[in-house]
Amino acid sequence: MPELKWLKSSYSEASGNNCVEVAKNGPLIAVRDSKDPKLPWAAVGHEAWGRFTGALADGQLS
Fold first, then answer.
1. Do the beta carbons of residue 1 and residue 15 sit within 8 Å?
2. pLDDT for the residue 14
3. Residue 38 and residue 2: Cα distance in Å, rounded?
4. pTM for the predicted model, two decimal places
5. What is the Cα gyration radius of the chain?
């Protein structure tokens, strides 16, 4: 498996207490908790990730 380039979410708290990181993994988006990067990460398809982030932006999830 190739090394993933993790990016911290721009919506994460500046204090670092609630941090989400994402990385492109071929046809998937990998998501992990940056507070403990050794834990397993989850992956979703690009379409599902787009629907999820769109719902967040629209205030449908809180």
1. no
2. 66
3. 16
4. 0.76
5. 12
